[in-house]
Amino acid sequence: MTAFWARRTSAIAAALMLTLGSAAAQDLKIGVVNPFSGGMALYGDEMTRGFDLAVDEANAKGGVLGRKIVIVRASATSAQEAIAAVEQLIGRDKVDLLSGTYVTAISNAASEAALNNNMLFWETNALSRDLTDRGLPNFARSGPDSSAFARRSVEGVLQLVLPKLGRTSQAFKVWIEHEDSSFGTSIAKEQEQLLKAAGIQVSMGSHSARAIDLSDSILRAKNAAPDLWLSTGYVTDHNLLLRTAREQNFKPAAMMLVGTGDTFETRDAVGKEFLDGILLVSYPRSDIGEAYGPGAAAFLKSYQAKYNRDPIAPQSMSAFVGMKILLQALSAAGSTGYEKVIAAAAKMDQPFGTYETGYGVKFDKTMQNVRALPIIAQWQNGQVRAVFPKETLAAGVAMLDLGRK
Amino acid sequence: MADLINVIAVGILLGGIYALVSVGLNLIFGVIRIVNFAQGEFVMLGMYGTYAGYTYLHLDPYLTLIVVLPCLFVVGAVVQRLILAPLRTEPAMQIFATFGLLMLLENVVLAATGGAAYSVTSRVAQISVDLAGVQVGLVRLIALAAATLVTVALGVFLRYSMLGRAIRAVAQDRSAARLMGVNVDRIYMLTFGIGTMLAGFAGCLLAPIYSLSPQIGTSFILPAFAVVVLGGLGSVPGAYVGGFIVGLTEAFAGYYLDPALKHAVLFGVFIAVLIIRPSGLFGQIGAEEVGLRES
Known about the structure:
Chain A is of the alpha/beta class. Chain A has helices at 2-26, 41-60, 79-91, 104-116, 130-133, 146-165, 182-197, 215-224, 235-247, 264-270, 272-275, 296-307, 315-333, 338-347, and strands at residues 28-34, 69-75, 97-100, 121-123, 139-141, 173-179, 201-207, 228-232, 254-258, 279-282, 375-380, 383-388. Chain B contains twelve helices and two strands, in the order H-H-H-H-E-E-H-H-H-H-H-H-H-H. Chain B has helices at residues 2-32, 39-56, 65-84, 91-113, 138-160, 162-172, 174-179, 184-206, 216-231, 236-257, 262-276, 287-290, and strands at 128-131, 134-137. Chain B has a two-stranded antiparallel sheet with strand order 1-2. At the A-B interface, helix 2, strand 7, helix 8, helix 9 and helix 10 of A face helix 1, helix 4, strand 2, helix 9 and helix 10 of B.
């Protein structure tokens, strides 16, 4: 009797394992490498929320390639941890492909580790132009790169700031401030080239994002007496620069921040009065006009319903759109193999304004999506409002005076 | 000329911040002879304590001192008693323990805050004053005044109070102090508590200047080591003067050379001073053995 029940139990267990194993095999697992701990976790979490929303939407329609999509997270706060995270996702979690990140160094290491394992790495938010310039065969980026941020900021100077101040490029002076890693440096160099080509006088300064004091940076800028102070940096150094600017009574006619400075962290640090009028070059926000980003309002509703709050930062909507583009490329490829997915993505051709962020899809030969552009927003009475291009303006929103008089 | 005056003002104000952060570090080194890697994290805890008082008790950041200082004193005393005292016969292990404490505190705060940058504001933080053509933030002036006050008060306390004399006695010769009836273990605990409280004091005064992040303590600790080595290991006035040397070096290098190079210049000066005068300006040779200076 005992032997009978033992055989019976074994048979049931084996059947269960087979069933569960088969169900697990049907899931399409996307490994996401991001900083989920440490000082960058706030944004790592935020953009992965965008992935989750895109996956929820796709699963509600039956998934992709006939399989339910599952996001598997692995935390990395440095290049070394990124390699370990990729190995864990591939070796232990058996993911089918990889995505992330919002940090260039992490993306760089993780995508190379993915290539060593013959796996796709789909980048949505890391910015450095170098990532696509490497020409890795398993790598594509759906979101804007540092070059797009530089070009958009210069467009903002020429088409927004100069007319608003009633100035021409002659005798107009810009101080370019940037943090000194590849993120800030690459954007600043391109801004310098483009502004000089437009006949604008340019001075530059750099700083460490971890510096305890940035009074010297503000003093140097103040002495140059620029009409526009254009700065690329991270959250804490931007906050310190702005506070120091206030202390030093540094008031150029206009200020423009690139990359950060558009969240509650900066508003709480500097105060809405000082911020009023400051321009921000950033990812498209969920409050942009529907004419520019169709479906942005629906994204905001989904986000609020799932997380019971407004988005912390606009990175989540760009990640959401990046995941949607990836899933479309997977469908077109009929496979998760990187050669087929990259080939399918390279054939995609969607006009601007197709997605919630206003992005379209057209990859260049380095697999950079050239129809993914940031927008320009403005601090208005403690709120960030999209103001450029003009199609981004939501109903009832207008650009304010630049507020630096 | 106006530039030069501005740069000197920036350097002096920055020096006040460094002096504020370093004075507790140097007290702990002078008496207990531990290089406390976690001192920057205690400054960070002081900042977050200020944030908690500001957010939940609706106190002005400067008023949170009445809550933060006793709390940090207790934290320091408990850390000394539970972590450092059991390692008293292993000085190298004590240093590693403070490094472990640094990582522990940073990561606990990271987990609690999710890495978001918090800020506290005070009406004072909005005020900027014009001193003979030099624009100065009032919060930085307050930090400079507080650093001066703390240095003087600590000097008076060590020189004239019974407890201060006992601390100096332990710093000079712990065996002799023990023979004279001084409870050395208690003095160690109190000294570490006072050093930690001074870090908390710095945290309160600096909270309106910086965005709070769990990593901010490590940003303070490297310049703080430069301050105590340049000023003199174990010397309280040395920490004060060292703060200004570091502040002015950074300000001049940042303004006249390149802000990205200022730390390179600072640590170049640091190495040069170590070679020329290893004990620092106010220290004496063998300070790591002798401990706190009376001056």
